[in-house]
Amino acid sequence: MRNTAILLIHCPDQRGLVAAIANFLLSHNANILHADQHQDGERILFLMRVEWDLSDFNLDLAGFGKAFAPIAERYRMEWRLETSIARPRLAIFVSKYDHCLADLLYRHQSGELSCEIPLVVSNHPDARPIADFYRIPYHHIPVIPGGADEAERRQLELLEQHQVDTLVLARYMQILSRDFVARYPQRILNVHHSFLPAFSGARPYHRAFDRGVKLIGATSHYVTETLDDGPIIEQDVARISHRDQLEDLLQKGRDLEKAVLSRAVRWYIEHRILVYANKTVIFD
Amino acid sequence: MRNTAILLIHCPDQRGLVAAIANFLLSHNANILHADQHQDGERILFLMRVEWDLSDFNLDLAGFGKAFAPIAERYRMEWRLETSIARPRLAIFVSKYDHCLADLLYRHQSGELSCEIPLVVSNHPDARPIADFYRIPYHHIPVIPGGADEAERRQLELLEQHQVDTLVLARYMQILSRDFVARYPQRILNVHHSFLPAFSGARPYHRAFDRGVKLIGATSHYVTETLDDGPIIEQDVARISHRDQLEDLLQKGRDLEKAVLSRAVRWYIEHRILVYANKTVIFD
Amino acid sequence: MRNTAILLIHCPDQRGLVAAIANFLLSHNANILHADQHQDGERILFLMRVEWDLSDFNLDLAGFGKAFAPIAERYRMEWRLETSIARPRLAIFVSKYDHCLADLLYRHQSGELSCEIPLVVSNHPDARPIADFYRIPYHHIPVIPGGADEAERRQLELLEQHQVDTLVLARYMQILSRDFVARYPQRILNVHHSFLPAFSGARPYHRAFDRGVKLIGATSHYVTETLDDGPIIEQDVARISHRDQLEDLLQKGRDLEKAVLSRAVRWYIEHRILVYANKTVIFD
Amino acid sequence: MRNTAILLIHCPDQRGLVAAIANFLLSHNANILHADQHQDGERILFLMRVEWDLSDFNLDLAGFGKAFAPIAERYRMEWRLETSIARPRLAIFVSKYDHCLADLLYRHQSGELSCEIPLVVSNHPDARPIADFYRIPYHHIPVIPGGADEAERRQLELLEQHQVDTLVLARYMQILSRDFVARYPQRILNVHHSFLPAFSGARPYHRAFDRGVKLIGATSHYVTETLDDGPIIEQDVARISHRDQLEDLLQKGRDLEKAVLSRAVRWYIEHRILVYANKTVIFD
Description:
Four copies of one chain form a homotetramer. Chain A is an alpha/beta fold. Helices cover 32% and strands 29% of the residues of chain A. In chain A, the strands form three sheets. Chain A has a seven-stranded mixed beta sheet with strand order 7-6-5-8-9-10-11. A four-stranded antiparallel beta sheet of chain A has the order 2-3-1-4, with no helix packed on it. In chain A, helix 3 (99-109) packs parallel to helix 8. Chain A starts with a strand and ends with a strand. Chains A and B meet through strand 11 and strand 13 of A and strand 11 and strand 13 of B.
């Protein structure tokens, strides 16, 4: 794998932005591998992702911020710098349904997901064997009625101890507290088993079945304070017919959930997601 | 085109239903061309569509009801009989956006839709040329504030005069009154420019854009008393990205609207739709 | 799970078929759960799948053939009877790529596939751990140059010993001999990593990439004497763009392969596939 | 509509390219609206599309080539400059099937396609009424056996007379001569009614039906000397089942053909297509 740096920027759109960034990178001998920019015409916003090879880059990354500051300030940029070698550290949260977990762990082991997964956290013991198989430590933290705070306290302890920076809720059926969520802004990915904003909340497949929709969906999104309302990362749908009973919806839905969550995780890991105005830009 | 009869049935599921129907048809020398049945396991319902060739059928259709009555009563069937030669008479309602109208009229003229279209009704004069081209009489009935009742009165007069049995709302932007809708139960088809139940009501593309969904949709459905809540006939979606501005959503949406409305109209004309429990079975 | 029987029939289409079958089943007190029939108008063929509950059925299945013979002969039917409790016994063949194997084993363990999998056969040792995890015996039978016959002999021995009736080639990269294939007519399922008939044969993703197609596909099909030419069971596609390099095609392709093969296996197990004229009818 | 310029470039990839182009445009006061670049890692190629507002641009476009030459030469670029106000002049060629023609003319009239359509050419008289309705001159040039050369001579005369720069073959069922094609390199768009490279050549739907595929497709592509082998611009597919007879394939296919051809035409008009290595990059 190449050793690259990725710069994600958004700022008010104005003349000279591309040249300023390109010249800065060139002045430090960067070889740009990919660059993608987008102008949101309605909001007069400029959004960019640029990735370059670090092998000839002559600026130490520790000093990047200081060197880049004049440009960033002049154009009022919000920016962040990532590198391909600093692999994100993900904790996967799961309850009883383990199809997303099994899918993510398989992809991780086969090299499709360039991240560390130091642990799996669950409020049930059921998914332990699959985690064991992939040699990922499994922590069973039950959530008893009235004990959510205590469970979150233990979870946070583990997350800190394992230096986790990102949470993936792979059909984790507990609602996290506002405080907990606030600690990981744009760092908690969830999969909801409907085509949001339709059927937000509980039992979406049952409600889709009752409404008689002709397509069911699944949505991966960032978790925010408001349930099922965070920025959408990916969605997909599958066709159903009157021949499909509720059981069939659940089964087709599982495949959708795996697809949209695994794509979201990959894009997250590759630093392809930029959030603004409660929406995402996916630099593909 | 073949001269066929179509029988649509739904009733409580019980043993012997298929044999009873098949024997009845055979006893009158029917040659079955298509038969499709469906058991809704949750509601213990039996639903069937059967189509047969009328050329050797030795029962006069006028007498069908009387002859079939013993079976229908025994099994407590709700049923209706249709024939391929009795072409439905559709009125298309349109406002300013004429893409669905143009699409339906092209399909009608090219033989894809086996129906009569005795008239187009609009609250605007804009779509007259395309109706003229396809030689369909165009009736401009403006709907002024406070004048909806009067407009509906004139519309009903026209519909009766032209012996219209079905209404197709092809982006007709007026809400029909409860009384009007009640006159055409399961006989008014509408297209809504969202993936229902998401974004029911006004300006769905704007709201989809603001929410940052990754797929937009369109839905064709029967009109009932409650806005955008009738039985769904067909839905489809298209992928969008951050590169798509509102204008692009509108354009991709137009293609979806044409697709889902024209499929609904064709299935309706071919007597493939059976409604129960506010859902549709599409016998394909 | 219900204890049901499934009857699959194809024969020349003629009047009275549905009644004859329905009456036969009713006379033995069958409660029909699903029935689906199809008339191929071009070939004047009748094809049917009917499934009924065995709990009240008063004909011993061992005697079904004798009792059904008069009808079958009169209408010149080709038919077969299956039951839901007689779970098919599948051997999965795999080479190095284990994504389809892992997917099938997960679905099997989670109850999505109602079959027995007595063994996995591979020409490589690589996939053993995943088979071990799911507790499926793994047989490594290397295929050395000039040693294909010997390998097939050992495979056949194993298949007989384990009373295997069906083979699933889950990215098994060896070509089976004509004799081997002839022993399992319509009982070997394969997945080919292209949208057949495009890119049959070797290295389909490479050739798709070179041709610059905008969608890549995968196909599950029955294996026949002619390579990649057997009856197609299922196909699916994924959109690609110029941003996708060969590596991305391979990755998107893996998800397609899992999808089309697992659907084919499920339909096979549920006795939903009927082959005629080198095509399949999927009774859904 | 904005008055913009579009620059399309491809050249060997090397350091400094983005900066060189951005600085050049900035030095002439360009306000970049969109920029998209792509590095083909296998071929070490750099491909770019950049669009800017001309309102403040202080370089006369007539002098662009001279001013840009030093950069273009230094980086060995192949490039072309287009403007949004220079609307391409398209001739649509059609035979008897007029669904693509009707679709394109509707989209043109409704403002979706920013081009001129000075004429429609056909070897049949059938499509004249729809061209008349949209007020596009219709030229009926029959192609009799042995008379293809003469027909092409007359077509070329018309194309020159109307200053046509681009041809759209909207189900034009004649094969153009090698000489004719050579006059319009990357300027003839065709729609083929299959998922290329499957079923190239004649009667693709019939062959798809016979092969028993589960999806049918359509492909828009540039015409080159070799039949159905030019760079693919867009493809799409639709699901079919055993219930679909040949007639249904033809009908579903028509909708696919309209979709893929109209998208290709729009991308062409918006200068979003770049061809290299017999493939297309679509800058979306």
